[in-house]
Design a protein that fits this description.
single chain; alpha/beta; TIM Barrel; 2 domains; ten-stranded mixed beta sheet; 14 strands; binds S-adenosyl-L-homocysteine
Amino acid sequence: MINILDLSIEELKEKLEQLNIKPFRAKQIYDACFQYKDYDEVSNISKAEKEILKQNFNLLPVSIYKVQESKDGTIKFALKCNDNSIIESVLMSYKYGYTICVSTQVGCRMGCSFCASTRNGLIRNLLASEIIGQILCVNKYLSNSTNERKITNVVLMGCGEPLDNYENLTCFLNLVTNKDYIAISERNISISTCGIVPNIKKLADDGYKINLTISLHAPNDEIRKQLMKVANAYSIKEILDACDYYFEKTHRRVYFEYTMCKGVNDSEDNAKELAKLLKGRVAHVNIIALNAVKEANLETVNKKDAYKFCEILTSAGLSASVRRTLGADIDGACGQLRNKILDETGNK
Ligand code: SAH
């Protein structure tokens, strides 16, 4: 069965005509999807037509499976797709509103050694409807609670590698920025990638101007290869060249993520080498203490060491900060909640 939001409105009109339903219904159906309404909540379509529609299309691409609220206000959602796949989204509360972190794949095939999402490899790509569905579903959850504020920012940093699912990613971007619907501005959307070089360039060539974050995690290729399999495919030099290209085309500042793992990439020399590598760039480095997950045999660093590392970067003239960890008490790291549910339900 097709999720409506995987069809453009024109494609939907064509399908409706084949089913003898007037094409003007397409807009009403699209509206319902964006309001996260299921058939029983739609009042402007006749019962008979709804019956036909129900047999062919899903309005809701995902539904809530489990919600975990953290003491710090972060909420982690396990959502269920229509094929029963479980995916994760994380909602973070800031002064200006909510940021949601969405998943782009069920599982991941990138094989980063510190990441829980990649434990069982890639199961499948998420459809564009399932990526936007996470935002629509959580928005509805918020509007049902007493909270007035809504999601204003989106980060593509959940499970999966967004640039390994390029077509659905770009369909999603077209949907989420569409002025007629939730209309989130490209300035408020960030993508995080382990560095799939050709698709970083393609994103810029295709005219998207979202914020780009590179999961760098190492000052040189040798250390990067210890942590990330993808480092065997693309060198840091190639990634930085792609970042320059992206910046030239989009004028968006590039961000770098640096997850500190004890004894691997956390020394003062590593910080100095990183400072040298990134010197002169319009960039910001986010330093994160590894969220030690049971899936990986790596240790985290203490906050003091993270701040010391950061200090070396800022003293060298770089823009850098230590990211505060949100949701550590609710399996906050990528893929942790999904794995827990798979374990609990005996599904490996
Ligand atoms: N595949 C994308 C996006 C998903 S991961 C990417 O690689 O960027 C989002 C970020 O969280 C990445 O920077 C990733 O390296 C980091 N991450 C994953 N697991 C982590 C963990 N256990 N502790 C700290 N950071 C982690």
